[in-house]
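A favour, since you know our structure tokens better than I do. Go ahead and set the record down below.
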Amino acid sequence: MSPSKNKRSGIVTAEGGTAVRASVSFPSDLYRALEEIARYKKVSLAWVIREAAERYAAVERTLLKPEGKP
């Protein structure tokens, strides 16, 4: 399935989910480090940033959940 536009939330991903585009500014040294990681892994810079954001969100969600709540 190829990505197509979704008026409400941005784009539809190849997996069928929706994605929202964001513009983010990085300090130049961090940006260079992210580019280096992307080159090493042979993936896009966007992939590296999404992976990092997903990992960060997973940790933070765990910390934010009250004890005993799903």
